[in-house]
Amino acid sequence: MYFCRTLSELVLLTTIYQLIQASCDVFKFITTPDTGSAELTLDLTTSLETDFGVGVWTRFQSQFEDNESLDKKILNYFIFSQLYDGSLPLIYYIKLDREARLIYFEVIIQNKDNLQLRELEVKQEMVGSKWVFFYFCYSNSIKQYNMFIYIDQGVTHVQMASGGEYINQNDQIIPFILGGSLKYSNLQFNIDLQMNSFAGQISDLDFRTGSSNFYPDIPTFLSNLYDTDCQINTCPATAQTTILANFYNGGQILTKTITFYNKRFVLFGWIKLNELPDIRSLETVFIRATFRKIYHGDKYQGEKALYWKYYQSTMRDDDNGFEVSTYHNDPQSENLKYQTLESDTFLQKSSYFKDAVTFWHWFVYQEGLPNSKIELNIYFGSKKEELSYQMTQDHYEKVTYYFNIGGDKFIKGFSGEVRNLTFSFCQLNDDKPKRYCHYSCNTCFGPNEDHCIDCVPQAISKRSLNGTYCPCIPTYLDVGEPYCQSKFQVLGGINIQEGLISDTSGCQRNQFLVKMNDISYCLDCPGAITSYGLYCIDCVYNPTTWYQNPICTIDYLMPMTDSTDYIFTRRDRKQKDYEYYLINKYNNQDKPILEPCFGCYGQTNSTINFIERYTMNTISKILCKNCYTSINGECVNLIPHCDECDNKQQCKICEQNYTLFESQCYQCPIECPNCKYNTTGYYCKSCNEGYYYNSTFEQCQQCGQFCQICFYSNLLNLLQCVKCIDTVDYFIASEFTQCLPKNKPHCKSQVYEISRTFTNETFLSTQYIFSIDLRADLISYPTVDICLKCDPHYINVIIVRKLYGCYSVNEVEGITGMALPLVLKNKVINDANFELGYHEMQTKDGTENYYIMFGDPIIDGNQKYNPIVIRQEKPNQKVCLDKNCEYCIQNYVYTQEYCIKCFKPYYAHKLQGNCILCPPSCIECEFVHQIYKDGWKSDLLPAYQLRGKQELHHFNTYSLSTNVDDYEVYCLLCADDGILHNGKCYPKCPCKQCIIENDEVKCITCENSIKTVINNQCTQCPQFCELCREFTNEEITQINPYFDLQSTTYRKYAKQCLKRDINDPAEGILYNDPSLGQEINCKNPDKKDCYFYVELQQSIYCGKDQYQQNLDLEIDDDAKQYFKKYNQPLENLFSQKNSSHFEIETDFLFNELNIQCIYSKILRINNLILK
């Protein structure tokens, strides 16, 4: 028995500098763990010699390691083995010792009772991910084998080992197994090995026969290697492209597997996230691509081979953004200690991305660019701006990526949309893919039809830009392709013709029909039509029947008259504002005339409250409308300014700014529009701004000059002003009743200080109040005007009873007679947010101090300046006690901390000084007095603290109400782009611009100059129409009894035009067709009214067999399609089974017929084939 494992028998040569060569043929077949094992055979039947050699290239690559292997310290990888009569005479495997960082190239040779183990040792960092060539050769004549290890690198590393006979080989056919795993046991020698699939690439076996391929030494071995510069993975002639997700809007996570090589690939597509509907922060995983089937987060290399995550927050705008990570490949590092680095990641967060990520953005992610560069380019559609990011990473040449799209096992629930997500490798160049646009657009800022920036030139595409659309120009049709086609080309035998209306007695636009004595007349509607409104639209709604009840109840008005860009809004009149008309024809008139009936409501059979009038040349009872009474044959309004009366015509509800008393309406005083009245006079229920509501006397008392809000002070016995009409330009005067224009230079917030002084042997004590204090009990005492907040770069100086104001650095140094510490001086000059105060206390020893009112702490030698207000940069930083507080004052009351401002979406409680969550839909709010609206005072709190350094004057005690019931939460900023109105949040505006009306969101302007809103959505009207309405089902049926009311495809055309475009058509005239409710563009040379009809030319086959025979004679699909357009079997023409009777009846045709407002269809039979 022979067992050898000693280094003395190894011959080593480790530093040979020369060009090494090897054959490239063996790289045409590569084995990996994914491909499994392969069986190969060495054929010696044609060789006169039995000497042979077998070689193999291996390259370790971490991406092929499975998760179980990653946790093991020692691993055995099977490479190949020889098979002989059920045994394994030759086994080659590689052992990896992670702890010792060594690699052993092992050979097991066994022959009956002999077993030999040969081992070559190399440091792990020397191998890395380089190709390693193993060669085993055997000489039958001398009964010796040699084995070599060669590492392909700049400095060649070679090792050699030798041994004796390993088997009595008599077979001419020698089978081998390459790759896969192997379980090897030898109880005789106590060997039990589990060999895993090699974590990398294995070349084909390099079989060599004959004595010339037995290499006795290393130089001979090296001289028989061939060119190693082999292209292992060669790209085909065209790029390899995979659509990962053509359209995806969340739900189940999509999974894809892609193997690519040459390190180069590009990933691109459109994506947008949904806006957050509430107040929160959200992380969303868009893509996780790994090269391990099982991943643990970020434990091993490749678990974030490509990782894309979004950050959304309605709490802090700067927390919005994205993170795109990849992996680094460091052969010197251990995979067990792997973690994604900052250099592996594009991390972007700022308020810029809050809206940018919730609108479509196009990204192109490229790897394998020159110099191992990785580049990410994102075009943000909402900004119409492209941002670019780069990093450098050397990645594996061939990798399999396991894609998870729309989440991973840690973060699920993708909320957004993805379009055209594409992965491509082996591309011919490194050009970035162009943005995928809707086929109608040339360039775009999103993937949809209404995201066009420009169109392909009109001469080519037959399209022109209209807002953000690229519709086809007239006489061309959109067929779902970039270039529009001529209508004749698409519609074939369809001809749209213009016919003249022979009966010119029909009513025109804004006229209505009157039938009297079997004669029809057309009269003008009574309502005016202006740029800002349409009045009495009832007449336009139903021009053929309105005369039967000629009453005006509906108008369409723009919400404002400062521009004509607003939409028209339907306004239903109050009943008292209805207008009723009488229609009569007099003998001396050619046609009837329309006369207003004052106070009338309509014809009636009632026996009370009516008058008699002629209408339609017949005497009729006419009911007086609400709040009108029949007196002497007239409907008379006996209750002016009444909105609604009861059945006895007694007033129930008055107009706005009027109050009801004994069925009469009395106008309220201007200061209290909501009032009541009795025999003793007017009494108010509330007051306008600038007035104080005296609840005792129910009267409004006017506040002082320039005062917006005041209240009655029991302490002062007067109306005390608490807020000026402008807190920046005005300040409350010392008498507390009025406001004065601000006059102190460089001061943002000016107040008066009223004080009285007490003294003893040691201290001077001053009692003082500010003119903005609510608890004011001093008056007629000495006053000084002081500043509580200065402009940036000025110092707030308080020298009690001597000097108050805002001064520059140089001025302060002159005032104090000493230089300002340099660190403070630089902060004041350079930092606009830094606020410094100087307070010289009037004490016997003349102590003086500088105080940082707002800013970071500053240390100047042994002197430390702590700010009055400290800032917590981010939540839970443990600077302030309340984790959600952004600005706080420590030791505000003894050891109690007080929060001035909280992080969104929290507000600071004025009395408790802690942070409380804002209401839902509100991301920024404040806690304010319901009447005084004193949120602006919070900025002045640091000055209260500064002034209180000598005499305690507490902000909460003096400046605020201490009754918690006086306060309310007032919203300042809404989530999800909601509308802020009077401190409340309303849903996001569904159009371009909205207002709040009756506590509801109402559109007032639309994109692309649209003037019509239906169901609070901007709606496109038919051509040549500015304002329209939807037809009711009954009206649609009257126009077309065959229309499918359940179908939504063509419902968009079922609209009546109420107001034509202000611009005339480029050619011809516009005629309003009363039967269709549409504007028709008549182009006949006489400019006469017209209608459009469609003419269909067909050949009709009486027999279907003949039709089919002729159809079969056509040679290709285009010819068959053309035949079916112009030919029809008779049975199809009258079939009730077919929804379409002609081949040409397509969506293209019906859309065109609706757009052109086709009135009728004519079938012209060119031929009648009788067979």
UniProtKB/TrEMBL annotation:
<feature type="signal peptide">
    <location>
        <begin position="1"/>
        <end position="22"/>
    </location>
</feature>
<feature type="domain" description="Laminin EGF-like">
    <location>
        <begin position="672"/>
        <end position="707"/>
    </location>
</feature>
<dbReference type="InterPro" id="IPR052798">
    <property type="entry name" value="Giardia_VSA"/>
</dbReference>
<protein>
    <recommendedName>
        <fullName>Laminin EGF-like domain-containing protein</fullName>
    </recommendedName>
</protein>
<dbReference type="InterPro" id="IPR002049">
    <property type="entry name" value="LE_dom"/>
</dbReference>
<keyword id="KW-0732">Signal</keyword>
